[in-house]
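User: I'm curious what two different proteins look like when written out as structure tokens. Can you demonstrate?

Assistant: Sure. I'll show them one after the other, since each token string lines up with its own sequence. Here's the first protein:
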Amino acid sequence: MVLTIAAAIFVFGLLVLVHELGHFATAKWTGMRVDEFAIGFGPRLFSVKKGETVYSIRAVPLGGFNDIAGMDPANNDAGSRGYCEKPVLHRMIVILAGSIMNFILPIFLFFGIFYFAGVSTPNPEPVFGQVMAGKPAAEAGLQTGDRVVSLNGESIASWQEFVTATSKLEADTPAVITVERGGEQVETTVTPSYDKGSKRTVIGVMSEVKTMHPGFFASMGMAVQHTGQIIYMMLDALYKLILELSGAELAGPIGVAQMAGQVAQLGIVPLLNFTAFLSLNLGIVNLFPIPALDGGHFAGLCVEAVRGKPLGEKSMYYLQVAGITLLVLLMLLATKNDLVRVFTGG
């Protein structure tokens, strides 16, 4: 529980800090007055004022905000330094900066992982990197480092061939496996079992993993490429999700906190990977053209740029109500999914 809370605070805190820092830095850069930069919601736990801005940490670490003067034109007391008085381009930059920072953060996280921890790739050779205790392979006497020669008389030359041959095995039906160990061939019988989680026949082994340590510039290039690949995969998955009109995989703060705790148990590298994935997810979702999200604000600014004036107060009011209603419904669905997972172990 303590690890889950700590991991959740780390993940949410870092994502919110980076996102809000994007809004804050660009607001300052374009000459806007920022009255408060806050991490979290609710009562202030800590605050300090430097210059015209109050920097605060609040009780609920599930978000954050920048109090930029003039966001509401009717209550602009900052004159030309108010948000509403700035050119449309400047306001667009400030609105998009949060999500842009969420796209930049993973590049640095992946760079750190690649440069300091290295890049692990499966060995294409049919060599056992891990034999799991209590699984069929371990019970058959197979060991880490064994090289598969054949399975049920079928010659094995690569790990992929071994995976293909294993997939043909039937659960609870003995299979003859020959491995090379210490220069000698050892033959034994292994009885596969059916794994409900992966829905396939397994014997309980993992491939050998090789780790390479790329240089500084190679790590940066790989980080940019990896980030781009994940964004493409996320957009593709999102497209399919919208087509299916399914919210079964939707997770809220409870679900994300639970996942953060589970990932943290595996170590700092998996936690940083998880943070990077979540940051990209946040960046993409926040650009949805839904009022109350940055994407909705940006869409409104695009309309203003075309019309030459902002939408009327009534139109903005109804759009914001619709947007907030949709977000509340999505949050309720995500919370329902979280609670189902918590109480069913799903």
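Here's a second, unrelated protein for contrast:
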Amino acid sequence: MIANADQLASMTASTVSGGAAHGCRALDLRVMGGIDLRLLPDRGLDIGAAWFAGIPLGWISAVGENGPLSALQGSAWLDAFGGGLLVTCGLRNVGAPSEGHGLHGRYSHLPARNVVVTRTVKDGELMLTASAVIEEVSALGPHLRLERTLSTRTGTGLVELTDVTTNLGAEPEAAPILYHLNLGIPLCEEGARLQLDSERVLPRDADAKRGLATWMVRQAPIPGAREMVYEHVVRPDAVGWGQARLVNERLGIALTVSWEQAGLPRFHQWVHLASGIYVLGLEPANCSVMGRSADRAAGTLPMLAPGQPRTTRLRISVGPSL
């Protein structure tokens, strides 16, 4: 028996000193044989950097780890988009600025409270579980509460996330959500392949149409390339989950994103091949990326009635590419 379980699974809480994230809280979860996570409580308990067997998984933008912004009109969201393995978009707008809401909403700029990390034993492995409450609330208006539970464990590359979003307001409220999973070098390098059981692939615009034949294989970086966005109609498995798998044969590993389609019926892919950016986004969602007015006009805007909860679940797993 070991003297201290921290040797196998540890959590370190810290406050960043210096730089763009000065004063922000961080939680570093490290697990033997699993996925190490850097969680950002002041950015909605999203995931910043992440590693498996020493290999970085997430894409980090030129902005890097950054504190939240207080003003998020228009496209200001991009000014503090540091990347990271998971950035949550919502809770009242996703995608294009719309109806007075900025790009991708406020969620990733909201501080988490009641942050707790526990260590338990499950199936013979140590599991670290972080939980928190994030609220998007106005004194005289909407009140959405998201309760997040996020875990990683020893012995296997598996991260599990469950969010319960509840409308605590007195009126029905639009509640779109999208999980922006950002993959970068070296996992997401030239030649890596995306495996996705897609019934249809819908390019967002003319730029995406031009790349339609190659969405499944990573191309070489292209100076000045424009972003491409696709929506996939994904076939669920026998228990109602969708799955997207990025395979890197050179590294001998694959990363799989799985999501429960009952809560996340839509899936978007973000491809940016520009030199100096070069990122792949895998994005389970319950909405489009065109903004809430477009979804409202299409009759597809997700709504929560007063008191109504909604559960969304996803998993990130990493293992051999075979």
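A detail about the second structure: The chain has one domain: 5-320.
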